[in-house]
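Recap slide: Nickel pincer cofactor biosynthesis protein LarB, sequence and predicted structure.
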Amino acid sequence: METQELRTLLESVQAGSVSLEDAMEQLRRLPFEDLGYAKVDHHRAVRTGYPEVIYCAGKTPEQIVGILRNMLARGTRNILGTRLSQEAFEKIAPELEGCPLQYDPLSRVLVVKREAVEMPETHILVATAGTSDMPVAEEAAITAETFGNKVERIYDVGVAGIHRLLSYTDRIMSANVVIAVAGMEGALPSVLGGLVDKPVIAVPTSVGYGANFGGLSALLTMINSCASGISVVNIDNGFGAGYLASMINRMPMQR
């Protein structure tokens, strides 16, 4: 149950169009529903403004379908699932025929979008150092879009050819939040942090050769950045970056 639906329910009780018993039956499903293999947090949207997100890695297709059906039946309008393999999606899709599923194989993100979300005028920019960083960047971008944000993408503008990045200076500076995605040595966020007067969310990726240590070198570079205004999420955590950027970008609408 999302915030607007809860408000509508309470107003219906107040107006007398819904009985107290019926309202109690609906509220009984809060704050979570136990499916045995998962406890679905239907109260999360009321607490945080965003419904629960399904982390699909490690879950069977049957479990994912069960969680999706439960959320849909309980009125969740838009649902996000991350780290869903192509193979799992092909098993899930026939079980949810008629449901508006959108799947992006690059980012491995599943979106169920049943309702448009009002968007702020400001936008989020997602930039990558290289083309190989795009799967993580797209996870961030699609997450932010699903939660109701305009997102602009600038890819393959790493510091190895910094003139590429500088050619987009006006577009970069017009963003309300910047997500910088980079592997290798992870220098891109520091450069962007020195260019913009808005928050920069740094995302280290596991892209790189052996001494990259699966993204650890990029993570340490970003944590040790001398540029101010940079926050850092975990390695390959595009979802976390997109979620945080959405919270920042939508703050004026949530006051």
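The CA atoms of residues 162 and 191 lie 9 Å apart.
The longest helix spans residues 3-15.
(End of recap.)
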